[in-house]
């Protein structure tokens, strides 16, 4: 489903969209992270491990679009909390992969549920069409960021 880009010159509320949009995106990112009780980096790392299974730091860094040192730093608290564990790599016993633990999978499920509930609450007054348009536009926005890597 592809939607035409909104025409900023026809903004009925007279908002300065070029100024407001970056601000609103930043506010959204901060508030959704706080609401889930798991910081953004941890959530994304756990999501990646849940989606793809155990992986080494270099692979995770490539998939998340960050440096290996960033993944190592982000994984440290997850390892301490036993949400992630180190596993030996079958082909090379000296190498390790990070894997989601059952505790990590449970925590991720809780955060996903809280976020779904929050989004449902925040969009309760929206029509199904409005939710769909928001989802499409947000996905398009995120895809644009992915293309910039």
UniProtKB/TrEMBL annotation:
<dbReference type="Pfam" id="PF01047">
    <property type="entry name" value="MarR"/>
</dbReference>
<dbReference type="InterPro" id="IPR039422">
    <property type="entry name" value="MarR/SlyA-like"/>
</dbReference>
<protein>
    <submittedName>
        <fullName>MarR family transcriptional regulator</fullName>
    </submittedName>
</protein>
<dbReference type="GO" id="GO:0003700">
    <property type="term" value="F:DNA-binding transcription factor activity"/>
</dbReference>
<dbReference type="InterPro" id="IPR036390">
    <property type="entry name" value="WH_DNA-bd_sf"/>
</dbReference>
<dbReference type="InterPro" id="IPR036388">
    <property type="entry name" value="WH-like_DNA-bd_sf"/>
</dbReference>
<feature type="domain" description="HTH marR-type">
    <location>
        <begin position="1"/>
        <end position="143"/>
    </location>
</feature>
<dbReference type="InterPro" id="IPR000835">
    <property type="entry name" value="HTH_MarR-typ"/>
</dbReference>
<dbReference type="GO" id="GO:0006950">
    <property type="term" value="P:response to stress"/>
</dbReference>
């Amino acid at each position: 489903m592809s939607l035409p880009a909104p025409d900023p010159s026809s903004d009925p509320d007279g908002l300065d969209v070029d100024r407001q949009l970056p601000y609103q995106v930043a506010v959204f990112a901060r508030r959704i992270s706080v609401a889930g009780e798991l910081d953004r980096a941890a959530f994304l790392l756990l999501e990646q491990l849940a989606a793809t299974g155990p992986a080494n730091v270099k692979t995770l860094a490539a998939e998340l679009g960050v440096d290996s040192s960033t993944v190592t730093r982000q994984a440290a608290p997850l390892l301490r909390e036993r949400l992630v564990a180190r596993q030996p790599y079958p082909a090379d016993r000296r190498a390790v992969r990070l894997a989601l633990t059952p505790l990590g999978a449970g925590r991720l499920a809780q955060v996903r549920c809280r976020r779904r509930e929050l989004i449902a609450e925040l969009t309760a007054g929206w029509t199904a069409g409005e939710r769909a348009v928001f989802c499409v536009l947000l996905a398009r926005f995120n895809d644009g960021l992915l293309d910039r890597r």
